[in-house]
Design brief:
- The protein is an alpha/beta fold.
- 40% of the residues lie in helices and 13% in strands.
- The strands form four sheets. Strands 2-1-5-6-10-9 form a six-stranded mixed β-sheet.
- A hairpin with a 2-residue loop joins strand 11 and strand 12.
């Protein structure tokens, strides 16, 4: 399949207009499915509501590749799936979680006739999402040909050898390639689903879902999925106070030594501990938080671009423009215009 080149970063899409009053997400449960990952779409999409009247924004259903009935999981129980493969034809988005029983898909890179017949129900233009090794199914079906994709770091080398037509990036949490999105393992599936909600309905909706789920509201797709370092000693580990201190004064100039002082550490020690805990440098983290603050203000307020730049801590509109273009690929004005096409956080129809 031909595709535009993907980048392993968070991208901004114009909010999609669902084919029905509620965007329908169909989750494909394959034998050997991991229950945690199977539940992610319902937990994230199923909790998204409009701000005005708390109307659900998505309808989430689970489907099997066989007629309704039990599906094995990788745990000591099966689940009863009430929808067969024809449900895939009704989807605006299809999510494929990881499974430990992919058989020929994992071993040979080919679909079984039963799985191929089920995927044939998916309509052209349907958004496709994989969580962890669910990407094997998308690759075997040809959806990832010519694209950049990710999967769990431990499977990346095998994935690449099995599907040489796919460019595998194992150093990121997720990749948004427009209509096809792939993620690394487990928690990265949460990150990707929240990213999709944010792209569909704005950060206010996504942040509320994250709060209710008690997970971070945003981890950039380009963040490393695995850091091969020993964990710091628990009594010495936390840089939480410094991060909380910085978040409370993003509008002010913040120096690295100021953050280090909050933890009574030297700059060198603080920087090392920060990387061990967060996975990126304090400067990168601070820039990410300011971008998120700017996004929120651009979406939810009528402040001028100059004021947003000051409140987010960029100082000047030029600096904010550079950071937003680097992180999102759009200017502040274009980003605001995108979300002005929504009404109450819901894509205008």
């Amino acid at each position: 399949m031909a595709s535009a080149t993907a980048t392993p970063t968070t991208t901004t899409r114009k909010p999609r207009k669902p084919r029905s009053p509620r965007h329908r997400v169909v989750v494909l449960a394959l034998d050997g499915v991991i229950p945690f990952e199977l539940g992610i779409p319902q937990r994230i999409f199923g909790r998204a509501r409009t701000a005005a009247d708390r109307t659900p924004l998505y309808e989430v259903v689970t489907a099997s590749i066989r007629p309704p009935g039990p599906v094995r999981t990788d745990a000591d129980y099966a689940i009863l799936v009430e929808n067969g493969p024809k449900a895939l034809a009704t989807a605006d988005t299809v999510v494929i979680p990881a499974s430990y029983e992919l058989g020929p898909v994992y071993e040979e890179g080919r679909l079984t006739p039963e799985l191929a017949a089920a995927l044939a129900h998916i309509r052209p233009g349907t958004r496709l999402i994989s969580i962890c090794t669910g990407g094997y199914v998308l690759a075997a079906a040809g959806y990832l040909d010519g694209r950049t994709a990710t999967t769990h770091w431990s499977s990346a080398e095998h994935f690449q050898s099995l599907f040489p037509q796919v460019k595998v990036d194992a150093d990121v949490l997720f990749i948004d390639d427009g209509d096809v999105l792939t993620s690394a393992g487990v928690a990265a599936g949460l990150d990707l689903c929240l990213h999709v909600v944010r792209g569909d309905h704005g950060s206010a909706v996504a942040n509320e879902v994250a709060r209710r789920t008690v997970v971070p509201p945003h981890r950039d797709g380009g963040q490393a999925q695995y850091i091969q370092r020993p964990l710091p000693e628990p009594q010495l580990a936390s840089t939480t106070a410094a991060r909380a201190w910085a978040l409370g004064r993003l509008h002010e100039p913040i120096q690295l030594r100021d953050m280090a002082e909050q933890e009574s550490m030297s700059v060198r020690t603080f920087t090392r501990r920060f990387r061990e805990e967060v996975g990126i440098s304090p400067g990168q983290w601070l820039a990410q938080q300011r971008v998120e603050r700017a996004r929120h203000l651009l979406e939810s307020s009528d402040l001028s671009v100059d004021q947003v730049a000051r409140d987010a801590g960029f100082g000047t509109p030029q600096s904010m423009r550079q950071h937003l273009q680097a992180a999102l690929g759009v200017t502040p004005t274009a980003y605001r215009r995108t979300f002005r096409d929504t009404v109450g956080g819901v894509p205008a129809r």
